[in-house]
Amino acid sequence: MTIGKVYLVGAGPGDEKLITVYGRECLERADVIIYDRLINRKLLRYAKPGAEVLYCGKEPGKHDTVQEQIHELLVWHAQQGKTVVRLKGGDPCVFGRVGEEAEVLAKAGIPFEIVPGVTSGIAVPAYAGIPVTHRDYADSVAIVSGHRSEQVDWEALSRGCDTILVYMGAANLPDICGRLMAAGKPSDAPAAVIEWGTTERQRTVAAPLATLPVEARKAGISHPAIIIIGDVVRLRETIQWFPEGQGGVGNADASS
Questions:
Q1: How far apart are CA 216 and CA 52, in angstroms?
Q2: Quick check: 229 and 180 in contact, CB under 8 A?
């Protein structure tokens, strides 16, 4: 029997138009699409007639169990000779567990490709009027997981990086801000948290680092969200361009 192939595809950060051309081509020829919780469901309309579409969203506390099931699905369908797309939000190589899935496929002798996507940490601030680098403000960027904030070297980040991007940190926002300030980051450092970035549901709260958790709580900000700390946040006052709360570009609906 002919072995199929798996494409590990980044869907982009939310707006359906931000998937790459190659990512869309992969969707159009897939026999099976296995998609994550935060991808824009409108992308599934590119599936060809008869394609099998499988949801594999990870709920809190069940990530490891679901991930093992995903590994099994990828291998099994490819072994049946099918073309499989594993569709992930943002870029699959940025907190997308693509390394784990590619390792499983390699060990099983399954051909695969990694198809990069537009990562949320860059695109979401851009839609909020915040470029992550600027020659007057930031020459370095760090991407950090906020899911386990106690394991991050906040002191090193505070000293050595101009712009800090935190994924999966909405629930730990007070702890993250507190740890950064304890590590030496000024309490008045510009900061922002952006919810449902690049979609019609996008909302941004910008405030000094010390008060960001309070302001975010007042606004009811929750996940999915990107946190950004650094002087580049000041640029939002001048170059904010995306009409938050008014439908937005592409009328995206990244349903959870």
A1: 40
A2: yes
Taking CA atoms, 186 is separated from 44, 67, 110, 171, 232, in Å, by: 44, 39, 50, 22, 15
Q: Give the orientation angle of helix 98-107 with respect to helix 63-79, to 10 degrees.
A: 40
Q: State the average pLDDT over residues 183-207.
A: 96
- State pTM to two decimals: 0.89
Tokens of 248: 């937005």
181 is catalytic: no
- Quick one: tokens of 155? 């002191």
- Give yes or no for a contact between 255 and 220, defined as CB atoms under 8 angstroms apart: no
Q: Which of 58, 175, 181, 253 is catalytic?
A: 58
Q: How many CA atoms lie within 13 A of 47 on its CB side?
A: 21
Query: Annotated catalytic residue: which of 36, 82, 88, 91?
Result: 36
Asked if residue 255 has pLDDT above 50, the reply is no
Residue 231 annotated as catalytic: no
Statement: residue 65 has pLDDT above 90: no
Kind and range of the H or E run holding 103 = helix 98-107
List the 83-88 sheet strands across, edge first: 52-55, 32-35, 83-88, 5-10, 112-115
| Rounded mean pLDDT, 171-194 | 96
Residue 5: CB atoms within 10 A of its CB come to 18
* 168 flagged as catalytic: yes
pLDDT in tens, 119-133: 999 999 999 999 999
